Each structure stands twice: as structure tokens, then as C-alpha cells.
Amino acid sequence: MPVAREVGGFDVLIVWRKVHGEWTRFFLFSTFDGDITVRSLLRAWKARWGIKVIHRLFKENLGLGRCHCRTIQAQENWVWCVVEAFDAVLRARREVPGMTWRAAQRQAAQNAEQYVLTDLEQDEPRLDAA
User: Fold this and answer.
1) Of the given ranges (25-39, 44-58, 109-123), which has the lowest mean pLDDT?
2) DSSP string spanning 51-107?
């Protein structure tokens, strides 16, 4: 169903699907060209939804939104740290199937702390080398 507005037009696609045995509807708003297929539109929506889910997970559980730095390089570094933290939590959960998200976060933090402390101990200058 096309909708015209002063700021520009868009299409509304009403999608019916069965969820838990009941038919429900949801609405997709699209600014894609009118020649796009419904299949392509649904595929784009599904990909975008996955991105939104992972972004929310990063913001709510891994501190993505807590960076107050102003430079793009600092922001990129922060995002990189969040992605690394996510990977560390996933590794902890793979090592112990059934581990809760919070327990995996704690384990990943302990692993990171142990790695940092071990690495520092190995890099300390040796007094007997002189």
C-alpha cells in the first residue's frame, strides 16, 4: 500500500504469519523503489532485524553506548573492544555448554584478566640478565 507524504513517499507492506499457532500481522515500511520484489524486501528486513538485535545486545550487555570519546578513531577502538568482548563471551559459552550469559561474561573477564597479568609477568625485565 503506497503512502504519500510531504517529506516523501513510502510503501507499507502488511505481512501475516503464524506465530505460536496464531496468525499475527506486522507492518514493514519501505522506501525502496517500487520495482523491488516482496521476497527481496523481506530478505532485506530480515537482515536488518538481525543487525538491530546484535546492536542491542552490544549496547545493553557489552557497553557499546558507554563510550564518550569524540574522535572517530577512539569510537572505532571502543567498537573493536566490544566485538572482542562478545567473541570472548561466545568462546566461554562454547567451552561450557549451557552457561548463562552473565556467567560467561564473568568467565571471559577472568580469562582476560589472567591473560593480561600473565602477559605482564612474562614481559617484566629480568634482574639476572645484567
Assistant:
1) 109-123
2) HHHHHHHHHHHH-GGG----SHHHHHHHHHHHHHHHHHHHHHHHHSTT--HHHHHHH
